[in-house]
Design brief:
Elements: H1 2-14, H2 29-39, H3 44-57, E1 62-63, H4 73-87, H5 102-121, H6 128-154, H7 158-185, E2 199-200, E3 208-210, E4 213-215, H8 223-242, H9 249-265, H10 269-282, H11 288-308, H12 312-321, H13 327-333, H14 335-345, H15 367-400, H16 404-423, H17 433-455
Antiparallel strand pairs: 1-2, 3-4
Length: about 500
């Protein structure tokens, strides 16, 4: 019986079918059937889908009080993913570690760099607040690693990855819709979505404003975070639209519209420039028809936005054109001298993840600078390696696959990683739970796609079974991409400069 229970718990993660062995006893037959039924529904994609729902729909500002910033519902779910993944490593039959997966080494390097920084911090007396911050940092790192590894090793097929993509886009679209309501009404959406038993871990109780415009944050902790999250989801939503199945085109159009409409309303320079980064990655692989349609949509959307919200596009234009001349940029450049002083004192492992507190030191609106201070050069290299791994694995999946739809999805995941890598230089992203967890999830999906594309280069994103309603469906808009390669966490809720 214990074997049946073990198989039921871990078979979905390992790809092992419970009860499929030839020597199963009759008394375990019924239990094995139940195990197979449950396992077919509870796999890593299902667990990660629940994680996405919690991450997107529950306000990040509410936490389990004693845990502080590490106690967000999504953070607790991420730690549960880590425990599930590690538990599955106990036996060869349930281990998800099968075959080559470069992301494992990168994630281990990232975790070890955080542990080394924590150990170095303990070598000298530190204030209690900084020690608490370092403890929270380790909890967060454990959750981030678990999400990335569960996605990288646990997603069993390209069709299951497509299911996760659809659910992620749906969650992002709902958050975007909440942001639209908040922009026009000024209502603090998160205040009405509080979960009993959780406490607010943010000073913000009203909607922020810039140049007389409401800056929505929906379920995020800040408008910057909301803008970056929606920008990371946008390439995945565009993929769904370009490869929509019959009868689903309007749903995908609505999702893309919600994302495109809400991103400018965050009045965030990070989000606007992130859209440009995503475009640089995606446009070269599109056909001429898609490029023309995209340009027309962008032009008409800009005109419509100016008509519906007069002055918003001018504010956004000023944000971009004033880079280098405004107080926000000047404040960021002032950070370098402070970072240089802290770096000179602890250059290799820093002073500890989560210990550079704004109340004690200053706000660093640049995660790369923050990583240099908190985890030193080793931690910075680990962070860069993680982001680079996501990009390279997505691009590797594109090269390995011969399926046009899979190749395009791989490029879209690469665009999402590129947006994250860029935004890490514009605000201290690891201090924001939604954008950080999403980054590790996307990187894990890139690794899963690399593994699956290499295993089945001709595989598609829908099941091959003739009983599947999507197996014989073709995209509603046959916009084929070129066959050749183009040439081309600090507690959330603080005031931000951009």
């Amino acid at each position: 019986m214990s074997r049946v229970v073990t198989s039921l718990l871990f078979a979905p993660l390992a790809g092992h079918r419970p009860g499929a062995g030839g020597g199963s006893a009759d008394r375990a037959g019924r239990a094995g059937q139940v195990g197979r039924a449950v396992a077919s529904r509870i796999d890593p994609t299902t667990v990660l889908s629940v994680f996405v729902a919690i991450l997107m729909l529950l306000p990040s500002r509410y936490v389990l009080g004693p845990l502080g910033a590490a106690g967000t519902p999504a953070g607790l779910m991420a730690v549960a993913c880590t425990l599930w993944y590690l538990s599955a490593l106990i036996t060869p039959d349930t281990t998800p570690v099968r075959g080559r997966q470069p992301l494992r080494a990168v994630v281990v390097f990232f975790v070890v760099s955080a542990l080394a920084s924590y150990a170095v911090m303990q070598a000298e007396p530190r204030p209690a607040l900084e020690i608490n911050g370092a403890d929270r940092g380790l909890i967060l790192v454990a959750g981030w690693a678990g999400v990335a590894l569960l996605a990288a090793d646990g997603i069993s097929g390209l069709e299951r990855l497509e299911v996760l993509r659809r659910r992620l886009v749906t969650g992002g679209s709902i958050v975007a819709a909440l942001g639209l309501v908040q922009f026009f009404s000024g209502i603090d959406i998160a205040g009405y979505l509080a979960v009993p038993g959780l406490t607010a871990n943010s000073d913000f109780s009203t909607v922020l404003r810039r140049d007389e415009f409401n800056r929505p944050m929906a379920t995020a902790t800040h408008p910057i975070e909301l803008g970056v999250v929606l920008t990371m989801v946008l390439p995945l939503a565009v993929h769904g639209l370009l490869h929509a199945r019959p009868g689903t085109v309007w749903r995908h159009r609505i999702q893309v519209f919600l994302l495109l409409a809400t991103i400018p309303m965050t009045v965030s320079r990070s989000a606007i420039l992130g859209m440009a980064v995503a475009a640089v990655v995606m446009v070269p692989v599109w056909s001429g028809k898609v490029r023309v349609v995209s340009l027309m949509v962008l032009g008409c959307g800009t005109i419509a936005m100016q008509a519906v919200v007069p002055g918003l596009m001018g504010t956004i234009r000023n944000l971009v054109t004033s880079i280098g001349n405004d107080s926000s940029t000047n404040a960021r450049t002032d950070d370098y001298s402070a970072v240089l002083t802290a770096f000179a004192h602890r250059p290799w492992f820093g002073q500890g993840l989560g210990t550079y507190l704004p109340g004690t030191y200053r706000i660093l609106d640049n995660q790369y600078l923050g990583s240099v201070v908190e985890t030193g050069l080793v931690g910075l290299v680990a962070l860069l390696a993680l982001l680079a791994a996501g990009w390279l694995l997505a691009r590797g999946a594109r090269r390995a696959s011969t399926n046009p739809e899979v190749r395009h999805l791989a490029q879209c995941f690469a665009a999402s990683v590129a947006v994250a890598a860029f935004s890490f230089g514009t605000f201290d992203a690891l201090g924001f739970p939604m954008v950080t967890n999403l980054t590790f999830l996307v990187v894990g999906c890139c690794a899963a796609m690399w593994r699956l594309a290499r295993e089945d280069p001709a595989g598609g994103l829908v099941p091959d079974s003739p009983d599947s309603p999507d197996s014989s469906a073709s995209p509603a808009e046959p916009w084929a991409e070129p066959a050749t390669e183009p040439r081309v966490t600090l507690p959330p809720g603080r005031h931000r400069r951009a």
